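Obj: model holo form, ligand = glutathione.
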Amino acid sequence: MITVHHLGQSRSLRILWLLEELGVAHDVVRHERDPKTRLAPPALRDIHPLGKSPVIILDDQVVAESGAIVEILCARHGPHLVPDPGSAAHVQHLELMHFAEGSVMTPILLNLYVGMLGEAGSPLHPRINQELDNHFAYLEGLIRPSGHFVQDDLSAADIMLSFPVSTLKRLGRGDDFPKLAAFNEMVQNRPAFQRALSRAGGD
Ligand SMILES: N[C@@H](CCC(=O)N[C@@H](CS)C(=O)NCC(=O)O)C(=O)O
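Output (holo structure tokens):
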């Protein structure tokens, strides 16, 4: 059995979505953010020392880090979501799996935290915006005519990239990257994504 520790309004929704796409039975434990700080509650530290989400319990083993969780679940239950090893698509897929957490999240988080500084953070915003544009323009250029990254159907990289792409709307940049906006729409319209949302408690 798989248990997913899901934090409300967080990137762990990707794991619930993946499990719904794969039709794999799982339990969901929802954790609420502190209403003031927006941080995870202390209960998540009882599950994993980092106190972050997603965390899953898989055969009694605690696994953190979205990319690792997605890879493990695809290897067990969804090899069709990963291009054939040895293919050029597999190489690009691997790059994007890492890009999703390792690159594009950096300017997104900098924007969030520096934004909290108000006026004091203003000297940093031009550089942060440059990097947001750089990373999102790269992703916009990778969307295939099918509306997906890498393959012409859903892949694990689509699932990993869905979270950073979803932040564009909140940044007020949805119209600047129309292919990414359409990708976001496609994700939200998938029945499995809708099921994941309802298992997550609506956000
Ligand atoms: N790279 C990690 C990031 C984990 C992470 O930062 N999760 C956020 C959710 S969006 C979190 O738990 N934040 C609450 C906190 O830091 O207190 C992953 O992808 O699993």
